[in-house]
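Record type: monomer structure entry
Structure origin: computed from sequence
Chain ID: A
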Amino acid sequence: MALKKCHECGHQVSTSASACPSCGAKVKKGMGCGTLILALFVSLIGMGILLGALSVWSASSRRSADLDAEVAAQKAFEDSRRQFESSISEKFQLLVEKKNTNDIQGALKILKEFETFRRTNYEGFDTLKTQILTASALERLKTTSSTEAKVIHGIYVELCSLNPGNSQYSLQASKYAEAVKQAEIARIAQESEARAKAQRERERKIKESTASLVARKDEVKGVTWYTHKDSPGSDASKAVFAYIGQKGDALWLRMKITYTADDWLFIKSFTFNIDGTNHSLPISFFRDRKSDHSGGKIWEWVDLLVDAETFALLNKVSRSTRTILRYEGQQYYSDRDVSSSEKLTMQQILTAYGALGGQPPSK
């Protein structure tokens, strides 16, 4: 039975009692679990309402601030407009002076004021505006290089629009329109020639780099296979070489490693020691591992799609001074040097792959 002290006399009282047996004081009850949960729930609801109210107040405050800023901007505009209206005759006189003294930039600023406050109907404004804009265009004409025919043509078109019927501006606009046309024709011709030259160069590289290759078309699969004419055949005793596959615009590389001997090696992996640095490829890379036994000889080979790692390996082997290839078997291994001929065929296959448009694998 749980006990607690009476808050009046200090005697121990059961928590289930309604009053102290000594002094008769009522026992204060603690908050039950259900009551506590309810109180917490009510508090959370109250907090949610408070946060919602704060959010509404914040949004309302922002809208109010935006409205105040808009009202202030409108008031400032109206104040400026009234000030402009009160001195419009002086503004127009100043505009005339700016134009007469060739202060074109200053005149353009005043023109903008007339347009901002929509007083372009002021008497004499249109004529003065045409004169100022014409002077501005002529100033830009002076600072434009004669080689910028398109820009000059645009300025003369602007002058023709400002001064309809001006034969001099019209003649110059036509002259530069023709110059722009001829420049565009020359540009297109140059680009066309550049593309043709690039295509000829690409074809030359393809022809040169594939001169040592033999193409074989698989009519059923629609794939053309490119192998080096010096690459060993399928029955080569020990060889490593690459070859190219092409279908439409798609290009890819494959690498083949062969091993023939009197006894099985049961190859698990390959290690390339390239100028003293080891690079291993586990057998899991080679999904087409096969074996055969005929004529007293065993034959093991792998044929794999070249990925980014194998592509880098081929490049390193082809450019190495010395590469030792170790065939790692279940119990034994066999070492041999990759020959100069094998390295040369690798280089030429990789060059042809690039010339045909092949890209290094991304992964």
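Annotation 1: Residues 285-289 have pLDDT under 50 and may be disordered.
Annotation 2: Residues 33-86 form the longest helix (54 residues).
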